[in-house]
Amino acid sequence: MLMNPKPDSATSAHDRVYRRLRTQIMYGEIAPGAALTLRGIGTEFGVSMTPAREAVRRLVAEGALSLSSSGRVSTPELSNDRIEELAALRSLIEVELASRAMPRAHIALIERLQSINSTISEVISNRDAAGYIRVNLEFHRTLYLRAQAPAMLAMAETVWLQLGPTMRSLYGRLRRTEAPHYHRLIIAALKAGDEPGLRLAVRSDVTQGLRLLTT
Amino acid sequence: MLMNPKPDSATSAHDRVYRRLRTQIMYGEIAPGAALTLRGIGTEFGVSMTPAREAVRRLVAEGALSLSSSGRVSTPELSNDRIEELAALRSLIEVELASRAMPRAHIALIERLQSINSTISEVISNRDAAGYIRVNLEFHRTLYLRAQAPAMLAMAETVWLQLGPTMRSLYGRLRRTEAPHYHRLIIAALKAGDEPGLRLAVRSDVTQGLRLLTT
DNA sequence: ATCCGGCTTTTGTGATCACAATTGCGCCAT
DNA sequence: ATGGCGCAATTGTGATCACAAAAGCCGGAT
Questions:
Q1: Residues sharing a CB contact under 8 Å with residue B113, sequence separation 6 or more, in sequence order
Q2: Are residues A125 and A161 in the same domain?
């Protein structure tokens, strides 16, 4: 007989290191260009270099960290061209995810989205950049999970990961005082069953941060 | 003064292993579900387990290999749902790449595409599945390189990688006798500067293999 | 004060080892 | 012949070590 082997806690050391690093990067808790060392990560998480190396390699493969020619690891500093590309990718993938999620979006999901959206305000008042990014992404992820498209969602999360360190400085410049306008448009389009409106709202929300680069 | 440090040959061992494995997987030279061992890979490439492990981890992170709960590594066997998702991703990303490449596509590029396309016929007559996949992807990559969008191209290649082992069996069922019809449509649209036609042709070419699943 | 040289320290890489868990084979009982 | 049990071989994981290269630092010359 196979007992349930604690599916969440039975993780290897490199996986723990990977997940914690990944979370820090995705939520913009590490500044762009910050340097990391394998031994430093190892001692920070209480493991040897081996799991630290594997976690770092994995994050490099996902574009969350960049590797200098001499093997040094740091969070990437993205060029404006690359940011534009990643925003375009977010738009392409997330519009599709939202579109696929819409037919399955029942009322409980919409209420959940409204609840998440309402917590954004208090995070904003605390000037908590990482918290803002986290709640914002939770809003999107909650919607996209309904699309039942794990490969697409993984792709979208990879893009979020690559944008993580940059988002912090971007949202830092953005002196926001209220919950994002486009989130309300997304919820309204979901309620109305308005698919073109949903696609437009998601595209607008995703590319909105881009304006900070050009202006 | 900084001399050019042989940018292509100065590679670490794990990178050599990674690239060779990646090529084999992307071009469908490994059947879906095939098992791999770290020690096996190590001895095959004349290195120890350490570089083999890093190469495998990297490929797992890219979705090119799948990891069982006990850490065993194998090429993934994709469900039909996942294949549909990946095809949809190819369509989204590659249509955008083609669209961005079109304004920069001068006559030399079109001739290059025609040249690549003409070699497909002879590969087909040899019943060389891996060769067919390789030339087919080279056709697409050549076009997309002109888009000057490295992040998008990397995303597209990741999808190709995930589909690699499956493509072999897919193209195996496809008894093809001539170069793909949609490649000629792509070239014609490029020549005519017909952007909607190009988008349609790319979308059709990319999702064409999918019909083998449903019929 | 600034720039250059050499030296020390830090850092990544790859090999090897000990260990635990899983796998898979063979043997035995029915 | 078949199904289950147990042992042996295989395999992934993580730690440690030796080594080479890169980075940072300190001092001296100009």
A1: B139, B142, B143, B183, B186, B187, B190
A2: yes
Q: Which residue has the tokens 């082992």?
A: B165
Chain A touched by B89 (CB under 8 Å): yes
**Distance between CA atoms of residues A112 and A149, nearest Å:** 20
Domain boundary among B39, B56, B74: B74
Please name the nucleotide lying closest to A57, CA to C1': C12
Lateral strand order in the sheet of B35-36: B35-36, B73-74, B66-67
How far off is chain A from B125, nearest CA to CA, in Å?
34
Question: Which of B54, B63, B151 is nearest residue A57 as measured by Cβ atoms?
Answer: B54
The last residue of one of the domains, among A74, A95, A124, is A74
In a domain, B123, yes or no: yes
pLDDT by 10s per residue, chain B, length 215: 333 333 445 689 999 999 999 999 999 999 999 999 999 999 999 999 999 999 999 999 999 999 998 999 999 999 999 999 999 999 999 999 999 999 999 999 999 999 999 998 888 888 788 898 999 999 999 999 999 999 999 999 999 999 999 988 887 776 666 667 899 999 999 999 999 999 999 999 999 877 766 65
Is B149 within 8 Å of A85 when comparing Cβ atoms?
A: yes
Nearest nucleotide relative to A39: CA against C1': C11
Residue A150 belongs to domain spanning: 80-214
Is the distance from CB of A40 to CB of A21 less than 8 angstroms? no
CATH number at residue B198: 1.20.120.530
Q: How far is B98 from chain A (nearest CA, A)?
A: 14
Q: Do B85 and A152 touch (CB under 8 A)?
A: yes
Query: Which residues of chain B from 12 to 51 reach within 8 Å of chain A, CB to CB?
Result: 12
